[in-house]
Amino acid sequence: MPEIESKNSNIPIHVGIIMDGNRRWAKERNLPTFEGHAIGYEKMKKLPGWFFSRGVKILSLFAFSAENWNRQAAEVNYLMKLLEKAVEINLLELAKKNNYKILISGRIEELPGDLPAKCLEIMKETKANNRGIINVCLNYGGRAEIVDAMRKMIKNKVELEQVHEGMIKKYLYQTDLSDPDIIVRTSGEERLSGFLTWQSVYSELFFMKKYWPDFEELDVDVILREYAERKRRHGGD
Predict the structure, then answer these.
(1) Catalytic choice (10, 22, 30, 68)
(2) CA 135 to each of CA 67, 122, 140, 164: distance values in angstroms, whole numbers, following the listed order
(3) In the annotation, is 68 catalytic?
């Protein structure tokens, strides 16, 4: 593993990745949009090994936004097939081989076909694994997550005096995960687009110019060096 040289050797526990730029990558090369997604998908499969081997414990991936349903039907259908393949085959094989735990965050029940059942199955099959956590945000939106938490609290008749930050966190999709230490977005866009809205309030943000299909292992070291050189204040300094 390459040595990380920095003023501070801190390694983030939880890294969030917004994998952006597949379509623009394909367009600039006069390739079909699907080709960009296919290359981006191959990069996604390599991420856990790259990050976990360097000491990161949790990896949250923004795989499909609740807003992505607004894209053309053919593209959405292709993405759903890729994601179904990921959940049913690739992620499951990766988890079994490396003892990774898989979580799926989002409105899973709204996904098409057998995908909701497959999401629940992979979480059940890997729940005891402990060598790293892959949190796949699928049909996910940060505001939707907070709305869903409020609905569950109302359904459970949570009293007004019981409502505080800890209680709200208890009703989020993945209550046991620590907040992301750093969130990375590729493609040059500098916004979070609803990714981990509640959890990201004190996350370090790092925006990369390159498109997601161009992401490579050396970029992991760039991210970790950047994180190590920052001083996190959490509003106290």
Answers:
(1) 68
(2) 19, 12, 11, 25
(3) yes
